[in-house]
Amino acid sequence: MRRLRLGFVILIVTMASIFTGTLTAFAVPALGYVIAPEGYRISVPLGYSVDRVLTGDYENGMLKNPEDLFIDSRDQVYIADTANNRVLKMDKFGKILKVFGTKEDKLNLMEPRGIFVEDDGDIYIADTGNNRIVHLSPEGQMIEKFVAPKSDLIDKDFPFMPTKLVLDRSGNMYVTSGNDYHGLLVIDGQNQFQGYIAPNKLKFNLKDYILRKYATKEQREALGKVVPPNHRNVTIDLNSGYLYTAIENTTIDEIKRFNFLGINTYPADKHYGEFTNRRGIITSPNVVDVSVDKDGIITTVDSNQRKVYQYDQEGNNLLVFGGNGDQTGFFQEPVSVANDSEGLLYVLDRARGEVQVFRANHFASLVHKGSRLYYDGRYEEALQPWREVVNIDSNYIFAHRGIGKALYKEQKWKDAMAEFRLGEDMGSYSNAFREYRHETLRHQFGWIALIIAVMGAALYYSIVALTAYSRKVLASPAGSGNPSIQNAILTIFAPREAFYRIQSAPRYMPVIVLVLGMLAARFFHIYFTSFHFNLTRPEFADFYYEVAQLIVPFFLFTASAWMITSIMDGESKFKQILAACSYGVIIPYIIGTVAQALMSHVLSRDELSIYNGISTVTYCWMGLCVFFLIMTMNDYTVGKTIWVIVISILTAIALLLVGILFYILMQHVIDFFKEVFLEVYISGF
Predict the structure, then answer these.
(1) How would you classify the pairing of strands 86-90 and 96-100?
(2) What is the distance between the alpha carbons of residues 357 and 53, in angstroms, rounded to a whole number?
(3) Per the confidence metrics, is the pTM higher than 0.85?
(4) I need a surface site. Which of 116, 465, 570, 574 has the fewest CB within 10 A?
(5) CA 170 to chain centre
(6) 337 with 290: CB under 8 angstroms?
(7) Which domains does the chain have, with CATH numbers?
(8) The dihedral of CA 428, 433, 438, 439: what is its sign?
(9) For this UniProt entry, which segments traverse the membrane (predicted)?
(10) Nearest Cα to 521, choosing from 614, 586, 594?
């Protein structure tokens, strides 16, 4: 009986999961994956495995809320054991070599949160609780202290509270201080403030602007002051001089790379990390530390996702591993990451009080080697490791990009195009296509010229024939011949006459046919646009979404236009406006959409202005048709027509927002009744 009850409960929960679509949507992800430039996951082999785990020891006490990790040039490990008010120095296998902050050394550290060690072994500790930075000898002897520098340029609202720091070869310190959002503090060896560097800018937020624009004084005070995000962590590449920072409290540009002028040279306006949605709860990324190895591979840890993300020098995600869990290889609260000279990754977990050491496997080593050679411009040498990566996993897109670059350099344009397509690199595909087009033109110029001439002549005579037919239709009385075809031709060549005729005899059948034609044109565009222009990949096209994004705006505007014209002394009825909009909006859309898809096969992205120009002309044509149909069918003046169109658009937007709110409300109602239903059945058994 108990098994029967348990089985029934499982059945109910499973059915509820299917009902909400959560059973498959939130399945456990593959152990290894990468994030494609478009944001979706691609499963790949796991690149790292745990080599060993470092903790404190029972003699010195276990780690308690550690905040930072540093590995010096001799692969010795330093841990800021924050809650224990000390810093541990150990070898790479976890043997304690030295403890800084004991009663004997009288350093009196308080909540140290950052460490930097120079090549000569000198140690710099961000002694956060004491609002200072201490400089120690390798043996732990106090050399000097750096306290709050005196300068009128420092914002007095943010007291000196060093949390992380690095030093360049000139001895200048770059310090993150509490919640100071002005940038990194630059302090020289004499404790003199040299200014801020690498400030983050506050990005414009329309929602926040509107809220503050129309909020009361009390509401604005409750919202608080909006400030730029601050640097959570910083590391330095001493060879290049670049400063790498992890930015907190932001959902874009979470990683930055600054040159000596404080200019970000890492790809901007981009998401690093990922957003996840589990049971309706959206978790944003929170990059808390960044490390860079000798090959320029950037490794970050995300405390929200509890994962490690690796990126190349252009911001492409190379590998992802980790996740929330108690097992080895997973994390509870990763806060710091560092590399040693062997290429091992050390990840400090504050909640678990340990450091997990990860070793790259053959797959990850090939990825790193290929990436290094690729960004050194040694494409032929990178070909071999990239081919090995593809042999292991053909889904690894960056390997295909590397192979494509090598083939491009060998002037194998068509083969390079195939690899760039597999690598989802639209820009490089376009470059290879441009060269392939040029080569084809040189070798097949006669045939291509003949085809262009024939197509041009066919287009010209088609336009001439249609123009003549439209004149014939205009000369004939309305109602003779096929009105649907006549109205379609007149919409192109004489739109005002077309709308007069539609108003006198509107029909629903052409509306249905034209709407189906609009959908067909959209899917033609999705499936037949060339790769380097296609922003919607066919395999990821959502049928219902594509239908909705065309049907909903069309009918919303039609309904809005009918309501507004009815209020503003219009003469048209709903059926008339619907029929006229079908001709005036959909026919230009079909022609422009199909033309754009066809032109994508002869243009490269260097001619993007031509491709986009087709869209611009199409939308202008649609706008003119709407203008003429509203004015013609309601006998409006030009000014009144424009005013009616503007109000109709705003009304359509308002109706859309109401619909979205209603949908959200209904989702909450459904969730409520679902929970009640489950509770009743589960408690009943």
Answers:
(1) antiparallel
(2) 6
(3) no
(4) 465
(5) 37
(6) yes
(7) 1-30 (no CATH), 33-360 (2.120.10.30), 372-443 (1.25.40.10), 476-667 (no CATH)
(8) positive
(9) 445-469, 508-527, 547-565, 577-598, 610-630, 642-665
(10) 594
